[in-house]
Amino acid sequence: MQIKQNLGIADRTIRLIAGIVLIEIAMSKHLENPAFIISWIFAIVLLLTATFGYCPIYGLFGIRTISGKNKTD
Predict the structure, then answer these.
(1) Helix, strand, or coil (residue 70)
(2) What confidence tens digit (pLDDT) does each residue in 44-63 have?
(3) How far apart are CA 3 and CA 45, in angstroms?
(4) What are the backbone dihedrals phi and psi of residue 33, each rounded to the nearest 5 degrees, phi first?
(5) Cβ atoms within 10 A of the Cβ of 37, count?
(6) Alpha-carbon gap, residue 48 to 51, rounded angstroms
(7) What is the pTM of this model?
(8) What is the pLDDT of residues 62-73, one digit of tens each?
(9) What letter would DSSP give residue 10?
C-alpha cells in the first residue's frame, strides 16, 4: 500500500522548521512541564508529516497542497 502525498514543498518546509523549533524549545526546558512534553509530541508529528509528505488530517478532509509535477495520483 502506497500513501499518496498531499503536502506541497512549502507546507513540508514550514512543518520541518516548526518541528525543529519545537524540539529546541522542549530541549531548552528539559521537559519540566507537561506543556513541553506536548511540544515534543507535536514536533515529532510535524517532522514525520514533513518527511513523508502526508498529513492524515488533510487526507481526512481531502485537502492537498501538492501541485503540478509533484503529484502522485
Answers:
(1) helix
(2) 999 999 999 999 999 899 89
(3) 16
(4) -135, 145
(5) 12
(6) 5
(7) 0.80
(8) 899 988 665 555
(9) H
DSSP run (H or E) holding 39:
helix 34-52
Higher-scoring residue by pLDDT: 32, 40: 40
Contact status, residue 13 vs residue 61, Cβ threshold 8 Å: no
pLDDT of 10 higher than 60: yes
The Cα 26–Cα 19 span in angstroms is: 11
CA distance 26 to 73: 37
Of 17, 3, 6, the C-alpha closest to 71 is: 6
Burial of 55 (0-12, 13-18, 19+ CB in 10 A): buried
Residue 40 phi, psi dihedral angles, 5° rounding: -65, -45
- Region class of 69: left (phi > 0), else alpha (psi between -120 and 50), else beta: alpha
